[in-house]
Amino acid sequence: MKKIFISFLSLMVIFVLAACSDKADPVNSKVKSKKEDSLTLQEVFEKTTEASKNLKSVHSDLELKQTMSVPGQSENMNINSTVSVDMVLDPIAMHQKMKMNIEGGDESVQGQAMDTEAYLSKEGFFMFEPTSGVWMQLPKELSDTVLQMPEQQMNPAEQLNQLKEFADDFSFKQDDAQYILSLKASGDKFDQFLKDNAKQLMPDQLKENEELFNNLKFKNVEYEIFIDKKTFDITKLNMTQELEMAIEDQKMTMKQEMKSTYTEYNKIKEIKVPQEVLDNAQKIEQ
């Protein structure tokens, strides 16, 4: 049960975008007519893809609300999180701060509040453990896995190409400053695509668990993506989804609402692990 619970939580973020040939409808009649207003979604897609090739660094802020119903627990678990991340792509480095609050669920987790911080760099993967108040250096195998990931997987626009086949399912709107893309990705048509993306986020030992994915169902998945008209950078991504997993004739469900923003494109020059962390972190063996 613990492994299934952890794997269920790992299905938290899937970034998506797509392309088609329709022009964007104005959000309201006050939108001024500009040259970029006549672009089709296919053209916006191409320009966003081109802009993403120049990405060197980015800052993101994320708000995540989750409600989980777990077999054997009489009360739903509510998890509210805020995450702030600085990311540099070449070489890959990251600084992350996260605040998490858990209400309901099992008595062992009720009322828990957690503030964590992490650094990832060529020196390794370091995480602050709030209950003991110490920094830990995670196993080298774990940091190597992340550091060897293709840069494209760290790019907020990388998922653009993956949804080309669903181009006709997007709605395409605009206001004076941005393009707004929306997609309802529920139903059998999107099921395998969503499962494949979820699998990419899972640890290697869970990717081979076919039963896990056979018992996983996505419901009511919706995306809303905002693209700046001048830079063609993704500025905001909102997502809501409901997951359902069958476990021994019982169902575990998770409803999730995510709001993320992307700023500081190419303004973060480097990320350094503080010397105090390097000197005092406790090494954790795999």
From TrEMBL:
<keyword id="KW-0732">Signal</keyword>
<protein>
    <recommendedName>
        <fullName>Lipoprotein</fullName>
    </recommendedName>
</protein>
<feature type="signal peptide">
    <location>
        <begin position="1"/>
        <end position="18"/>
    </location>
</feature>
<dbReference type="InterPro" id="IPR046720">
    <property type="entry name" value="DUF6612"/>
</dbReference>
<dbReference type="Pfam" id="PF20316">
    <property type="entry name" value="DUF6612"/>
</dbReference>
